[in-house]
Amino acid sequence: MTNSSKSEVSSVFLRLLTYLVPLKGVLFLSVFGLVLYGLVDATFIYSIKPFIDQGFASNVPTTPGLVEGVDLGMGGGFNSDSDVLKTAPFVVIGLFTLRGLANFLSTYGISYISARMIMDMRQQVFEHYLKLPVSYIDAESSGNLISRVTFDTEQIARASGSALITIVRDGITVIGMLGVMFYNSWKLSLCILIVGPLIGLVIAVVSRKFRKVSKQIQTAMGGVTSVTEQMIKGHKNVLVFGGQQAESQRFAKVNDDNRSRTMKLALAQAISQPLVMVIGSLALAFVLYASSLESMRADLTAGTFATILAAMLAMLQPIKSLTRVNAEFQRGIAACSTIFAVLDTPAEVDNGTYEKQRVEGRLSFDKVNFRYDNQEGLALKEVDFTVNPGETLALVGRSGSGKSTIASLITRFYSDLDSGDIRLDDVSLRDYKLASLRRQVALVSQQVTLINDTIAANIAYAYPGEVTEAQIIDAAKLANAWEFISNLPEGIDTQVGENGVMLSGGQRQRIAIARAILRDAPILILDEATSALDTESEKAIQTGLDNLRQNRTSIVIAHRLSTVENADQILVVDQGKVVERGTHSELLAKQGIYYNLYQMQFGS
Ligand code: ADP
């Protein structure tokens, strides 16, 4: 292990401990249970000697001190053989009841702690996602983002739970057994010390491997999630284009990748455990050999020998667990460092202080140059325009020309302009508090995102505060959605299904318009998606949109030129630049790009 990774492990670990602070009461009880468990086991082994030496072999001279050492609530020493053997059953029952209680306390307590930790971490990661800049989400695969919340958190909790159990309980057991051994015959017990460092070495070497492979497994798991997610999202497309084989091959690849990495971990684990066992047997063999020596035998009673042997055997299982826990622990640390990296990703920059309840809606771009982080060239070049309150500005142009980018900058999804400035009511967007800025904007986009709830809940989604049924119905009417909603058996209480699968494209769009109407923001961004709809739905939506645009500053990304004829300004965007501007009739008269686009869509 290199120094840096060592210090990384300990800092990750220390940070993990902070999650336990609020749970310290339960933690204390659990640890108490674990310690008790280990001690009971050691006590049990310790009581073997008096059972044997006094219960059976009463001819062996006893050292009074040793006998008094057995304080199992049985009073003083044993006076006769039968006394010892008669007490034995009670001791056994007593010890095992105690062990059972300790077991319950620790198992339940640790499950409680793990469940809390999973819940807290999930919540934290989820909430952090909500604060992260759009660029971060753009750059990450959604499979990875999801498996952070579902898989990685689980790994951490499982690892900390089993690590705690093993380290404390089995640690105490091993220490207790060692104590019993040395107390009985330190000479014989010394041989244990010979193998200790060997076992330590094996553990250290394997840890490194474990941690590395665990990280890889996490990534592979993200791949599995991500391919599955893509397939489910595009299920219809896959069926139509006969992509089943390609999809299943793609999945087979990530699936197999995940398997082979899991196997690497299993291999390391499978090798290390038997190795430790073999090393352990060396110690046992050494004890057996040593006790056959004349010089040793003088000190040994049958009871001492049996106790040492029993202690060594009783130690094997805990030692085995201690080596295995390492895999779990390393896996947890790996998952932890991924999670902490997410939590450490800076949230969206929100330095502005300017707040306004409701802006008038004067929006201006002042020679804006903008580049996406991961792109070479500028996505927007010298974009310059002003829209006055209540006016409509239409953006037209080929796909990929930069229209959506302009819209994304208005809501400050990307805040670093290369140069230039964007102002709302003559205040730079940078100076706004993000929440205050976004409160001014309603967005109706091509991909309507509906939540899996009722129509009413979907319309009220973005409304700040309590909303009445009458308000929802009014909004639905203005959005031209009331007609279809009122025909549904449960009206506005109809469930829309996941992302609105129960509704048609046009219906979804009108719900989104109703949502925007209810939100009543002074700025409206419309990414029109009417091109996929039949003429009737398009008309229905158009009426809704016209109602929505009333008295608002609207930025319309137009796919159909028919929808922008009465816009106050039309900008033709090409390769990030505004290449033409004017009203519909001005642009037609110019006979330039707009004119050509118009000719293409409507014929001459
Ligand atoms: P339009 O809305 O006109 O179709 P966009 O604004 O979506 O065009 O895209 C403009 C350019 O910016 C394109 O070249 C596109 O590849 C690029 N682009 C769009 N979104 C991103 C993004 N999130 N990250 C990097 N590049 C992007």
CATH level 1 class label of the largest domain: Mainly Alpha
The CATH superfamily of the largest domain is ABC transporter type 1, transmembrane domain
Task: Identify the CATH architecture of the largest domain.
Answer: Up-down Bundle
Biggest pleated-sheet summary: 6 strands, mixed
CATH topology call of the largest domain: ABC transporter transmembrane region fold
Extract low-pLDDT stretches. 59-78
Question: What is the helix fraction of residues, given as a range?
Answer: 55-70%
Query: What kind of assembly state do the chains in view correspond to?
Result: single chain
Structural class category: alpha/beta
Subcellular location: Cell membrane
GO molecular function: ABC-type oligopeptide transporter activity; ATP binding; ATP hydrolysis activity; ATPase-coupled lipid transmembrane transporter activity
Pfam families: ABC_membrane, ABC_tran
Protein name: Lipid A export permease/ATP-binding protein MsbA
Structure, explained:
Pfam families: ABC_membrane, ABC_tran. Residues 363-600 form the ABC transporter domain. One of its GO terms (cellular component) is plasma membrane. Residues 28-331 form the ABC transmembrane type-1 domain. This is Lipid A export permease/ATP-binding protein MsbA. The chain has 604 residues and is α/β, with parallel strands linked by helices. It has 2 domains: 12-343, ABC transporter type 1, transmembrane domain (ABC transporter transmembrane region fold, Up-down Bundle); 363-367 and 384-402 and 442-569 and 580-602, 3-Layer(aba) Sandwich (Rossmann fold), CATH 3.40.50. It contains 21 helices and 10 strands. The chain has helices spanning 3-18, 24-46, 48-56, 64-69, 81-131, 134-139, 142-184, 186-233, 235-240, 244-292, 294-297, 302-344, 403-410, 434-439, 455-459, 469-478, 482-487, 505-519, 535-549, 584-590, 593-602, and strands at 363-370, 380-387, 392-396, 419-424, 427-428, 441-444, 523-527, 553-557, 569-574, 577-582. The strands form 2 sheets. It has a 6-stranded mixed β-sheet, with helices on both faces. Strands 2-1-4-5 form a 4-stranded antiparallel β-sheet, with helices on one face. The protein is elongated and about 115 Å long. The chain starts with a helix and ends with a helix. Residues 59-78 have low confidence and may be disordered. Bound molecules: adenosine-5'-diphosphate.
